[in-house]
Amino acid sequence: MENRIKLKVLGITYSQIQNGAYALVLAEEEGPHRIPIIIGTAEAQAIAIRLEHLVPPRPMTHDLFVSFAHAFGIRLVEVFIYKFEDGVFSSELLFDDGERQIRVDSRTSDAIAIALRSQAPVYTTPEIVEEAGIIFDETPEEANNDDTEREDTPKKRTLKDFTIQELQEQLEKAIDDEAYEIAAQIQQEINRRNENPGRC
Prior knowledge:
Pfam families: BFN_dom, UVR. By secondary structure, this protein is α+β, with helices and mostly antiparallel strands. The chain folds into two domains: 5-135, Bifunctional nuclease domain; 164-195. Helices cover 39% and strands 28% of the residues. It has an eight-stranded mixed sheet with strand order 6-5-4-7-1-2-3-8. Strand 1 and strand 2 form a beta hairpin. Helix 1 (41-51) packs parallel to helix 7. The longest helix is centred in the C-terminal third of the chain and has 16 residues, at 180-195. The chain is globular, with a radius of gyration of 18 Å. Mean pLDDT is 82; it is low at 138-156.
């Protein structure tokens, strides 16, 4: 299929539009546009734990789906976000079993969660990028940092205030509690510390 744009998963942030929801942010692999997609908490957790390479104590639904497909020699070739209408993104998964290829319709959040686990590419159309794409001045991670550091909010203890040992303990607890969104945030802070050993 010609004239498509390859996307990458940039991250997940809290939705500023809908309470109790998250925004999955996709980005052009070679371009400035970002595409925010509103998703639910469960889907955000499924994507977040994969982005942060966390291992849940029990397989999640998307892990089970991928394991099942691999067991029968079925490979996810790609995800294609082919339509954006009334604020809703429509996607399809292209599977290959070595003899034939089949396209299956899917919610975009599920498609991305499966693509991350299968290391499959994600594509969309230039029209969707033009209609739904936004050029951000900052990444979701930077936006989250701004939210936590506003001067007009009471000073609370944030992840930056914890020691590495405390963060590791909190990470283990979050995984045990299956609070994967929190676990992903903790893992991000641990990763930042490891990349900058001077930070305590």
